Amino acid sequence: MNPTEVLTRYTANFVDELSKNGVTDIVISPGSRSTPLAMTIAEHPDIKEWIVIDERSAAFFAMGIAKKTGHAVALVCTSGTAAANYFPAIVEANYSRVPLIVLTADRPHELRDIGAPQAIEQLKLYGDYVKWFQEMALPEASENMLSYVRNKSARAVFMANEGNPGPVQLNFPFRDPLVPDFSIENLWSNQSSDPRNHTVEGKKQLSTNQIISIIEKLQGKGRGLIVCGPQTDQELAQAVTKVAEAWGLPILADPLSQLRAGEHAKDLIVETYDAIFRDERIRNKLRPDYIIRFGAMPVSKPYLFYVNENKHIPQFVVENYTGFREPTGNNTEFIFSDAVLFCNSLLTIEYTPEQDKEWLEDWQSMNRIAKKHLLAEAGDELTEGEAVRALVDVIPESSSIYVGNSMAVRDLDTFFFTTPKHLSILANRGANGIDGMISSGLGAAITGAPVTLVVGDLSFYHDLNALLIAKQYKLNITILLINNNGGGIFSFLPQSQEKKHFEVLFGTPVDIEFKHAVQMYGGMYASAGTEEALKAVLYDSYQHKGLSVVEVKTDRETNTSWHRSKWKAIAEELKGEA
């Protein structure tokens, strides 16, 4: 068997096994050393290949696909610094639990560490940020080696999805020649249609005695809180609201919790706790007897203050598999169980928890007061919070909002109120970086369902080259670009008082007319200066096929003052009610 046929059969068996294990989308960045993988993937009848030139963008694009679909997505790049450009997205995927299968092509062993071009140290390149690493054998086409390559392929998909999902890396050393021969008969071999080493994994569930033990710890405690942080399980909303109704508890729902939108009951959901917790006196009034949290730590910094100020109350954190996402360092009982099954189990135990009706009524009253101020009529100039409020009003049913970090996600936290619309809220809140946001939003758009990306100007600038993906694949996406000409979140931090250095080091204005960049990539551009005008142009963008960018220009100082005036008015009325 000649070297080309060996290479072809080895690579085809690996790629085919990815497909058999459910991989349908693979993102490829062009390069020479990755030729065997790239061409074989493009040839496979059941895999959709996406070509993204910039590896950093490619990795975030793959992550957006995986977040939206819930399935593992593979990445392919050539050797050298191409693989290093994946690093930011791999870090994010690790912390936000997104399944990626990273396939890095490499020079063969004899060309490493001798000064050969595009030969860097790629073994375990991503360190502990991947769940599993495998240095693949050089291609062979014996029966044993084709079995080997299929086993590794199947295991890669399993490891990416197992438990808390995350990225894995397989490093492929290839010798010349690199071009496969697809005229070979039985290219995908005569293997069974079933995946190799098929695995079945169940969900974690506590025993009845374990559930009773947890409930016994809540005896005599009527001022409980259910907190739902960032998570993606669409079934949790129904399950957790049933527990809240049975126990008479308020639910503090993060904007990324998937609880603020949908048809489930929302009478007990408190969306405005970030604004409520801004005042220390109010936080002191709202001391709980216990907290049960689902999902990651909420976005809200005032909530972090609240938890820190209540270190000695019982706190339970529910994780579907494992994990210790509790940054306060408080004494916490971690419950490793599927969240929906845990909620259902709580309701099967014959236990009626003590209820403090005044506690629940206080929360509901405070939520109404805060919403009244946050929903107050807009002024002459459109603010960032009002832009988010307008978006939620007009966004189509069954949409996804992909929200950027810094001010964007915080404004969503404050101004995204409960709605019967079916909305999926996505974000890159693992490492909370601003990089790769456009790429991630475009990845979520591949399904064809409406996607609106909400980002600030620095995030938009940071990932401008990703707009090529929208042009290349004619993806439908609306980008709500909130442009305050710099890092608006720093205006709320102590650094803002350092006037000598603030603008250069933190404000960082870029002074770019983004309209030209949008048009360069064939997108539709519009801007709005009032809330009603914004609703109109957003509505128009959803009728447009392809890329639409709607820009709202705001002033950082005005925006900071506006937010603080809202928080002050809320605090004053709440303290008057106390």
Automatic annotation (TrEMBL):
<comment type="pathway">
    <text>Quinol/quinone metabolism; 1,4-dihydroxy-2-naphthoate biosynthesis; 1,4-dihydroxy-2-naphthoate from chorismate: step 2/7.</text>
</comment>
<comment type="similarity">
    <text>Belongs to the TPP enzyme family. MenD subfamily.</text>
</comment>
<dbReference type="Pfam" id="PF16582">
    <property type="entry name" value="TPP_enzyme_M_2"/>
</dbReference>
<dbReference type="GO" id="GO:0030976">
    <property type="term" value="F:thiamine pyrophosphate binding"/>
</dbReference>
<dbReference type="InterPro" id="IPR004433">
    <property type="entry name" value="MenaQ_synth_MenD"/>
</dbReference>
<dbReference type="InterPro" id="IPR011766">
    <property type="entry name" value="TPP_enzyme_TPP-bd"/>
</dbReference>
<feature type="domain" description="Menaquinone biosynthesis protein MenD middle">
    <location>
        <begin position="221"/>
        <end position="402"/>
    </location>
</feature>
<keyword id="KW-0786">Thiamine pyrophosphate</keyword>
<keyword id="KW-0464">Manganese</keyword>
<dbReference type="Pfam" id="PF02776">
    <property type="entry name" value="TPP_enzyme_N"/>
</dbReference>
<protein>
    <recommendedName>
        <fullName>2-succinyl-5-enolpyruvyl-6-hydroxy-3-cyclohexene-1-carboxylate synthase</fullName>
        <ecNumber>2.2.1.9</ecNumber>
    </recommendedName>
</protein>
<comment type="pathway">
    <text>Quinol/quinone metabolism; menaquinone biosynthesis.</text>
</comment>
<dbReference type="InterPro" id="IPR012001">
    <property type="entry name" value="Thiamin_PyroP_enz_TPP-bd_dom"/>
</dbReference>
<feature type="domain" description="Thiamine pyrophosphate enzyme N-terminal TPP-binding">
    <location>
        <begin position="13"/>
        <end position="124"/>
    </location>
</feature>
<keyword id="KW-0474">Menaquinone biosynthesis</keyword>
<dbReference type="GO" id="GO:0030145">
    <property type="term" value="F:manganese ion binding"/>
</dbReference>
<feature type="domain" description="Thiamine pyrophosphate enzyme TPP-binding">
    <location>
        <begin position="430"/>
        <end position="552"/>
    </location>
</feature>
<comment type="function">
    <text>Catalyzes the thiamine diphosphate-dependent decarboxylation of 2-oxoglutarate and the subsequent addition of the resulting succinic semialdehyde-thiamine pyrophosphate anion to isochorismate to yield 2-succinyl-5-enolpyruvyl-6-hydroxy-3-cyclohexene-1-carboxylate (SEPHCHC).</text>
</comment>
<dbReference type="GO" id="GO:0070204">
    <property type="term" value="F:2-succinyl-5-enolpyruvyl-6-hydroxy-3-cyclohexene-1-carboxylic-acid synthase activity"/>
</dbReference>
<dbReference type="GO" id="GO:0000287">
    <property type="term" value="F:magnesium ion binding"/>
</dbReference>
<dbReference type="Pfam" id="PF02775">
    <property type="entry name" value="TPP_enzyme_C"/>
</dbReference>
<keyword id="KW-0460">Magnesium</keyword>
<comment type="subunit">
    <text>Homodimer.</text>
</comment>
<keyword id="KW-0808">Transferase</keyword>
<dbReference type="InterPro" id="IPR032264">
    <property type="entry name" value="MenD_middle"/>
</dbReference>
<keyword id="KW-0479">Metal-binding</keyword>
<dbReference type="InterPro" id="IPR029061">
    <property type="entry name" value="THDP-binding"/>
</dbReference>
<dbReference type="GO" id="GO:0009234">
    <property type="term" value="P:menaquinone biosynthetic process"/>
</dbReference>
